[in-house]
Amino acid sequence: MRFNTVPARPERSSHNTLARTAHRLTSDETAMNQATADFATFASHAQIIPIGECEVDLGGRALRRGREALELGSRAFDVLATIAQAAGRLVSKSELMEAVWPNTVVEENNIHVQLSAIRKALGADRELIVTVPGRGYQLAVSRRDATSARVPAPQREAEAMPGLTQLAHDALIGREAAITEIRALMDSTRVLTLVGAGGIGKTSLAREVAHRLATEQALEVRVVELAEHCTRAAVIRAFARCCGLQFDERDGPDVRRLAQTLAAMPGLLLIDNAEHVSAHVAEIVGSISRAVHSQVRMLVTSRFRLRVSFEVVYRVGPLALPDADSDAQTTLYSAAVRLFLRRLFSNGQHVDMNGERLSVVREICRRLEGVPLALELAASRAAVLGLEGIRQGLDEPLLYLGSGYRTAQPRHQNLRSTLDWSFDILNNREQTVFRRLCIFDRPFSRVAACQIAGDAVLSSTAVMDCVSELVDKSLVEMRFDRAELQYALSAPARAFGREKLLAAGEIRVIAERHALYVGGQLLAPPTGATALDRRPLARAAQPLPAMGV
Fold first, then answer.
1. Mind listing the pLDDT tens digit for each residue in 332-373?
2. Which pLDDT tens digit goes with each residue over 274-284?
3. Three-state DSSP class for residue 403
4. Degrees to nearest 5, angle at CA 43 with 37 and 48
5. Residues with Cβ < 8 Å from 292, sequence gap 6 or more?
6. Cβ neighbours of residue 232 closer than 8 Å, sequence gap 6 or more
7. Across 129-150, average pLDDT
8. Is 48-149's fold the same as 164-315's?
9. Is 280 exposed, middle or buried (CB count within 10 Å of its CB: 0-12, 13-18, 19+)?
10. Which CATH class is domain 426-541?
11. 267 contact partners, CB below 8 Å, separation of at least 6
12. Per mean pLDDT, which range of 275-284, 466-475, 529-538 is the poorest?
């Protein structure tokens, strides 16, 4: 896709050009993605679905018996197509209304009128369109299925499989490479877990992949949303609802039966927000993945891996950032800046994006380190604080980026709730090591981590065990400086950890320890120096008294 170029060093008179380019960069991708999705959706619908001796031609919008075209109105065809495409899955009344009358308020009786027309057209095959009292409608594969489907309605309604509208979201920016990599991995694995810090964009990325698979490959997608579930029973029920499976309350949930049912259902199972119930999710996902003839692929989002058979982990990173000295054109093309500007403009902020303001935006994006949630929250606060106010407030990001979207999940409405949620799933030792490591402003080594976080209780081995868990839980990132392994924390995580350090009464001691260590490193003598010359290093390395774990 081509965009008009922008002068590398714009003069003040060129700010209108910058503004137009910024708007175009944040809107053209949406239009392009929508056009692609629309074409893929049309292509996936060009298929024939048999119903007894009849067939539904979705592409030609026709119902036929042999070569004979059967008379059916447009609205009735939409109802039939929706039920037929569900391929035996129960279609609830609400789902049917949403699919056929998406922007219209109609009486439920309209469904009955259209079903009567459908059954009349189907003739002898009319019984293959089954009404399940109190629940909805489904297509029976055979007359035997149609007979067995006529059972008393259970107390709980099976949750309808989310349609494409439920997977829809704003077009993603800067994630095409990740989407390509994820889709390639999914071709060769049963379980793919997207792992990353809170607010990094795992859910959006997973839903975009699922949406593309559904539209381009006509793949049936079932979504298990776990954010609000905390117990094993609730997790099992969430999985059961996505496939319409009912359990006898007296016998309780049967994980083996659930796994066998899901394993036999071709398509994609999208399991979202699994970290807080990872043990329960792992039990179910592990059972499904071990099934000999499993036909389902599973895409999981979590802040850490499940550790089950056949699992492949994909780490979701932040958006690409411009360099500190990038020119205007390069800055505008960076993913982090484009996301920030899109949210800024969508909030009604008509800012003349001249070179000076673009420089401020670049600094904001760099200081927030490309974390999508942080960028969106910062852009949403610009109406109150302005761009310069946002930049100045980034010294206290948890205070200035404290409000988000009412429609977001509670733990994603602001940075503090996101980090609180991650912190709460750590054990006491991991919490202690995390808050102490937040004293670092820059990447640090294994030795540095042990010197700062260790004490009489936390040995170097214990500290590194905790660091390993923090990496696994996406609170600490591993980086390589040539061959040397280093660790780092995001700016919001550091600010959050320092609040915890202050609350624990450790801030002064850890700051002194950090100063001693850094001073020792800076004063490190050349090889061959005497023992006396090494005293600063020895003092920095000396363990301090335990501060409680």
1. 999 999 999 988 888 776 677 788 999 999 999 999 999 999
2. 998 999 999 99
3. coil
4. 140
5. none
6. 277, 280, 283
7. 61
8. no
9. buried
10. mainly alpha
11. 219, 220, 221, 222, 295, 296, 297
12. 529-538
Residue boundaries of the structural domains of the chain: 48-149, 164-315, 328-415, 426-541
Residue with tokens 């137009």: 20
HEC string of 154-194? Answer: CCCCCCCCCCHHHHCCCCCCCCHHHHHHHHHHHCCCCEEEE
Query: The domain 164-315: what is its CATH number?
Result: 3.40.50.300
pLDDT in tens, 196-244: 998 999 999 999 999 988 888 888 899 999 988 888 889 998 999 888 8
Q: How many other CB atoms sit within 10 Å of the CB of residue 36?
A: 14
For the chain, give the number of residues.
549
Q: C-alpha distances in angstroms, 238 versus 222, 241, 353?
A: 11, 5, 47
Phi, psi at residue 274, to the nearest 5°? -95, -10
Among 58, 68, 59, 63, which residue's Cα sits nearest to residue 126? 63
| CATH number attached to the domain at 48-149 | 1.10.10.10
Given the DSSP bridges, would you call strands 62-65 and 191-195 parallel, antiparallel or unpaired? unpaired
CA dist 247 and 229 (Å) reads 18
pLDDT of residue 116: 84
| Contact (CB, 8 A) for 494 and 394 | no
Strand (E) positions, 18-118?
A: 48-51, 54-57, 62-65, 68-70, 91-92
Q: Which amino acid is at 151?
A: V
Residues 6+ apart with CB under 8 A from 220: 87, 89, 161, 214, 265, 266, 267, 268
